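User: Quick sanity check before I run a bigger batch. Here is a single chain. Can you write out its predicted 3D structure?
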Amino acid sequence: MNEQNPVTTGRTATWAIEQLLQALAERGIAADDPPVRLATPDEVPAADLADEPESYAVLRVDDEIAVVSNDETGLRCGVLELADRVAAGQDLAGTTPFAEQPAVPVRGVVRSFSSVDEDLSWFHDQQFWTEYLTWLAASRFNRFHLALGMQYNYGADRHGATDNYLCLAYPFLFDVDGYDVRAEGVGADEQKRNLETLRFIAAESKRRGLKFQLGLWNHAYDYGRDSVHRYPISGLGPDNHAAYCGAGIAKLLTECPDIDGLTFRVHYEGGIPDDRHEIFWRAVFEGANSVGRPLEIDMHAKGVDQALLDAVDLPNLSPVLSAKYWAEHVGLPYHQASIRAKEAAKPIPPGHEMKGITEFSRRFTRYGYGDFLREDRTVDLMFRVWPGTQKLLAWGDPAIAAGYGRLSTFGGSRGVDLCEPLFFKGRHGSGEPGGRDPYVRDDLRLPGNREWTKYRYGYLLWGRLLYNPDAEPETWQRHLRSTYGEAAAAVEDALSPLSRILPLVTVVHGVGGSNNGYWPEVYLNLPISSRVHSDHYAGDTDPPANWGGVSPFDPTTFYGIDEYVAALAGHRLSAKYTPLEVASWIEQLVADGQQALDRATQVVDQSDAQVRRVMIDLEILVRMGRFFAGKFRAAVDYSIFRTTEDVSSLESALRHYRAARDAYAEIPGIVDGVYQTDLRFGIEASEHGHWADRIPDMDIDLAALAGELQEAAGTTPAAALLAAPARPATPGVNHTAPESFDRGKPVTLSLEVGAPTVVGATLHYRHVDQSESWQQVPMELSGQTLSGTIDGDYTASTYPLMYFFSVLHRDGGQALYPGLAADLSNQPYVVLGSSTVSG
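Assistant: Done. Predicted structure follows.
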């Protein structure tokens, strides 16, 4: 190594070499000198290296193996790949040249400190951090975000805050000169220990090539309402709040020099009312700016307005907006073609100024990218994948992870933060000492703050496939073989389809955008019967609050149930995917997963605890899939009954629902004595509980449907609905997207007709702006070409365009183009930038 080169001799490169030497030592291979040479491209001119940061190449140079990159993180990627191969038993001598480059610039993991009872142990455990951060680095993440205060939503939590440890972080870390501010019960020694731990986490993150992002999600010092704070904050009031926080952030950055960036929740739920919020935040931003070093300021995008963007405009600060990917859930990899109608902007009513921007005037920024992706934007945007869908069970689907690797840079955005498994465990004061590990069975427990290790495979897939969505399967199959032995292939084949079910359900069944109001994994029942009311879901779905009325999170691509039946009855069915198609997809995913699970059961080593953990979770996911598929079918049948009074449809609804309920009811037997009987991720009904708790509500709903059937017996139905025309197996068309469009000029988009059954098509388009609605243009057929034009007035915009086609066949069947692929991991529309940017 060149001793004068700071890239090859820096702390990250040095740490990576240590990992390679350790892998060799564990295989009994001694190495007095590093077995590879680290170099930059100027030292190895033959290196075929991409221009992107973190790219690397592994070459043979003068009988040496050389890892070449322009930066330390790229060297880390190359060296750790070699270390992983060594650990899998490969001989370095047989290494052939290869190179990779990152698809996604920001590949982050978020860990939340949510409970002093459950989280203080891992927070101060250096052994935990050493192992955990090493796995993130080996998985090719490049950012670690420690979130403080994320577990409370000022002004939205019905009961305020109780466990407020590290929520307003500054008084838990140090005293600020000139302010007599205290967190009661936290003395100087505890402050010192907390600050030293924070320094350790930041330094160890940086040593592994992970940028350290500190999330300060809360700046409230008093949550009001009936809050009984365990650590009351004294010494703050409206007159000194902003100045204290500005001084606090300056001291924090000085005391912890390895902080690369800060994440702030800048809307009212972070403790600062929307009305004139820029005054408070300007004081905080000026405090950060005063430290004099470059900092990334990541502002949670919900409710951001121009006043905040002006406030953060300071010379040392680089602002980034972080938007939610699929509301507060994990969905399919593409971004919503449209948001729910419930998210549309609306006037601010008098008396609602505290949340006026977030909940009213810019409501459309709550659960997506909003209007932030203009081509002339001055602030970057990235995404955050929230933990509402799945918090507990094992996950692993290479197709979805690769899809996120291709689509997390949508519209030129920078990438993604992933909220990890067990996120918000113990939230809202629901934690219990020693309760972080969700297992109660001794042979399954993961003591010593190692509960995260159950999810190694999921971290690996996300990190490696965000870096390179085209990575060779061997990338993750090495890990599967070392963990599951002879059953590795079967476990992979079971996890993949079964892990796809809940993200699909989330997209189609958008009953609640909030992660604390909707938890599909331990599903709190929403009734099908119109006679059963859901108080829980009524606040975040349109009335009536039952299955039929629920909007998908993407109502442009998927039908809601009542919407589908109404379209069927009115003979105006569009090309959107139907609930029955979704049910069929889930049933196929269950069948594929069950088949692989059966193979795994025959060969798996049940003496291994990790094997048992994952096999149990796979059994749960099979039942969850059967439940949701059956419930979709039952809800469609019930909606048909309500439309036509056809008693046979109600009979069918009951059959499907009973089968779905029985599948769900098998889960408590599978997990009896395995998981905690009250899985506590908060205090709301959908944040805690157990599968067994959910069954009585299903029985009430079933009884109501049975009552309706008894009353309806003997009635004469209206005319039965005609069956929906089958969706064509292929659209029968091909489209070549132009490279770009010229602003202010018409853009004509064409389909080449490859099937004689195609009789027409419609072009659907809009700006990449979720506050807007889709436009439609009928396409004209000339010879074998269908064409539609977007006029120049519409293209005279600084937004990119997005578009898709609905294609009509002679028999009435319709298809979406491009539509969703079989693995549900592509983008069902085209995004087109302007020549102003492309050029």
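The first helix runs from residue 6 to 9.

User: Great, the batch can go ahead then.
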